[in-house]
Amino acid sequence: RLLIVDFGSQVTQLIARRLRELNIYCEIHPYQTLDDDVLRQLAPRAVILSGGPDSVTRPGSPRAPQALFDLGVPVLGICYGQQVMMEQLGGAVEAGHHAEYGRAFVTPAPGHRDDGIFAGLFRDGREEVWMSHGDRVTRLAPGFQVIGTSPNAPFAMIADEARGFYAVQFHPEVHHTPNGRTMLENFVRLAGFTGDWTMAGYRDEAVRRIRDQVGDGRVLCALSGGVDSSVAAALIHEAVGDRLTCVFVDHGLMRQGEADEVVAMFRDHMNLHLIHAEESDRFLSALDGVSDPETKRKTIGRLFIEVFEEKAAQIGGAEFLAQGTLYPDVIESVSFTGGPSVTIKSHHNVGGLPEKMGMKLVEPLRELFKDEVRALGRELGLPDSFIGRHPFPGPGLAIRCPGEITREKLDILRKADAVFIDQIRRHGLYDDIWQAFVAILPVKTVGVMGDGRTYDYACALRAVTSVDGMTADYYPFTHDFLGETATRIINEVKGINRVTYDITSKPPGTIEWE
Ligand code: XMP
Q1: What is the ipTM of this complex?
Q2: How many helices (H) and strands (E) in the chain?
Q3: Can you list the domains of the chain with their CATH numbers?
């Protein structure tokens, strides 16, 4: 296995993701959990030291166990990891005034060969990389030499090739380092990995971890009907069978026909023990008059917990709670490892429930990105039609209805959304789009239909492409498609007389409207 030592960077998971793409098995361990003994037990074949928000010049800042450097295995340090290596191996790092963020170009040091760590790189003489650091190395540790530099980073790439130690100041794991994957691949090839590990392996490993964690306990799972909770449920079902009970809380904020589909899928197709809680009245009355997005999210989250607790009590409780939390939810919702990330939105599927109910969390997808969850779902035999579904947020249509939520607006929204999705399917575009939906706007506008005046709601179509939901761009529909869709919505959906297309990317927008 390959060990990733996490120093708290927001992009540590991306290292793991890149390695999984290369079919390499890796484990992330926070630096605090590692000591010399644990390290020897893990017996990694190679180690990657992640970036992190701290400064190695600060007393008490994170370090790697010293034994790591005596294991005789290749080590790659990234950003903070590079600085840790220099600090612990006898080099020097300076704080402050060398902050560098964003794009940079690295060129190889004179005389360097184009194989090994450089294989397939520097075709145009330089590589674009993404820098993000405040400190920098000022003196190399013994045995190291510079193998690549950038105008502002004389130690951009350094190596002690005899020991298989490499360190880079930039982040090879992010998209903004276009050939970063090749850099990581070169490192793991040098470390002797062949890349024979697959999603089937991940499934077995995940099942084993769930069994280890759950023992003889019982697990409850909140099913939303989305891909994430479905895959989590299928995986846990495989691990613990009938000791899993799923609760589907129908909050009245589902899309057209969705509740029935979910129940049919899980009860009939997967033979899961499923409780269907029809609670739309409770949710919609609590949301009456609420227009603030965070209040909506929190209200839904609170009621969700209430309903869930009631249903859990009815079946006599359970020790574990399963959630389909994905990695992007983790970093967008909470400050990961105490780092400086801010709360953009309160994703209601993270936090709250387990502490209150005295349950332990089972989150088997916590390390995965959406496309990996889909691959795992396929591996578990879920139908493609289900796995390919666009993501749907826990708070449902509530966050696609800016302003106050009414049953009337929800009905209109459901119909318009169904027409939009039908259009997308008819044109064969569904699988090219990450997520598509309609938002009903809190504004009425004047129109003319036939000989009459209308005064109805405006709506916005939203369709985006994305790889992981963390960044997104609007989908470039043809004008014909947009025109045809607008006509259909206005003709087929009473209550809407104006259709707009949202062409905001993320960032600066978000995918949902709230
Ligand atoms: P945003 O709007 O933050 O959405 O760009 C990114 C992705 O996350 C989904 N989303 C949620 N999913 N609970 C969820 O399970 C939530 O509270 C939630 N909020 C947003 C959103 O649909 C998109 O796919």
Answers
A1: 0.97
A2: 15, 20
A3: 2-190 (3.40.50.880), 199-387 (3.40.50.620), 406-501 (3.30.300.10)
